[in-house]
Each structure stands twice: as C-alpha cells, then as structure tokens.
Amino acid sequence: MALYDDLASTVRKIFADRWITRDGQVVPEPESVGLGNVGVKLKGTVLYADLSASTVLVDKMKDEFAAEVYKAYLHCAAKIIGSEGGAITAYDGDRVMAVFIGGSKNTSAARTALKINWAVKNIINPLLKAQYPNTSYVVEQTVGIATSDLLAARTGIRGANDLVWVGSAANYAAKLTSLPPTFPTRITAAVHSQLDQSLKVTNGRPMWEEVTWTAMGNQKIYRSTWWWKVPGAP
User: Fold this and answer.
1) For 8-47, how does the pLDDT look when each residue is reduced to its tens digit (9 = 90+)?
2) 208 CB-side CA count, 13 A
3) Domains, the chain, ranges and CATH?
4) How confident is the model over 44-64, as pLDDT tens digits?
C-alpha cells in the first residue's frame, strides 16, 4: 500500500470508529490500552516538572555538563514523584510528567513539588557548586500542577507508541511550567481547594499566593516559593 493510501485509510478509521472506554483504578501502562479508539477514564492530578532556561544551558555549557544537570534534576524529580505515589507517564527532554490518583492526589502532588524545590536548593545546586566551583550556573525549575477528568489513549504506530493524556489538567500543568521560576511551584485553584491544611499554612503563614493567570482567561492560580524537606534530610 502506498504511503498516502495508508495514511488516509488510518485517519478515516480513527475518525469513524466508535470509542470504547473504561474507568481506571490505576494509572494504565501503554500495553494495557489498545491502539484503536480505546481509552481509560480517570480523575487525576497532573504534575509537570521542568528545568528552566534549558536552551541557555545547552547553548552556553558543554554537552556533558548539560547532560549531568538533566540527569541530576530528572533523577531527583522522579524519585520524589515515586515516593509520593505518583506514576511517571512521560519524559520529554528536560521535563517529566506524572499522574497522581486517589483521595489525596492533590496534596501528594503539591508536596512532591515542594520537595523537588527543596532538593534543587539543598542537594543539586550545592553539589553542583562543589564539583564545579568556577561555574556561575544555577539550576532553576518550575513545577505545574492541575487536576481534572482525564482520558488516557494509546497513540503512535505498532512498535513505537505511548499514551496521550487528554484533559485540561495535562494542558494546564504543562503551560504553568512556562511561567518564570521566581515561583518554582504553581497550582490551579481546583488543586489548591483540595489541599490538606498542612500544605496550605505553616506556623500561621500562608504557603501560597493567589494570582491571576491572564494568559489563560484570567483564571485564579496559586504560586509558592516554599519547600518541603525530603525524608532523612539533616
């Protein structure tokens, strides 16, 4: 079959086929979802953790140095995500996506973000400076978190495919990471409203600042510079 015929036939089938969906109790693996119009529905909270100014990093630093920063940041983020019960769903260059489900999904995701912020400030940057005392580079990052109904569907071709996550949470969480790293953590109002009190106030001080997200229809979002120590930290 010519490439045109193959493409047109497949696209026609995608648009014409009925969807078969099921409710999910766990974050699905790609192999558990069919390649046709098959999807898994769940209520989830999406977290994106993203290195800031990575273009400057790769343009101005040696490739090996940039790779070490990528590896250090993504390792810490991934380990913290797993420790809080999140499921990593994708790596994309200098960022990682995770999905949290269950009754405490918003609190777990927000605590994850604050722990990543702590790890960057107290593990990654000090050890980077110790190894490279002459560098002026400092790791900065942003985490975006949003919650919504999600549809997980398998996309790609046989032998090269992955899950795509459809829902406002995936879109908003990713877009929040494009905002300046002066506030390393940003969450939507829906996430903030579901946080445990321990993630809202510390010693009588609010941990989040409400602001207007003008680029997204003047939505209310919350931003924070707070951090949360990882277990075992001195």
Assistant:
1) 999 999 999 999 999 999 999 988 999 899 999 999 999 9
2) 26
3) 19-224 (3.30.70.1230)
4) 999 999 998 878 888 888 899
Taking Cα atoms as reference points, which of 179, 30, 149, 148 lies closest to residue 90? 30
Rounded CA-CA distance 27/67 in Å is 29
- What ranges make up the beta strands (E) of the chain? 20-23, 38-51, 87-92, 95-100, 141-157, 160-166, 185-188, 201-202, 205-206, 209-213, 219-224
* Helices marked H in 17-124: 54-60, 63-83, 105-119
Whose CA is closest to 53, among 223, 177, 215, 219? 177
152: Cβ contacts below 8 Å, ≥ 6 apart = 24, 27, 28, 33, 39, 40, 41, 42, 163, 164, 165, 166
Instruction: Quick: pLDDT tens for 188-227.
Output: 999 999 999 999 999 999 999 999 999 899 999 999 999 9
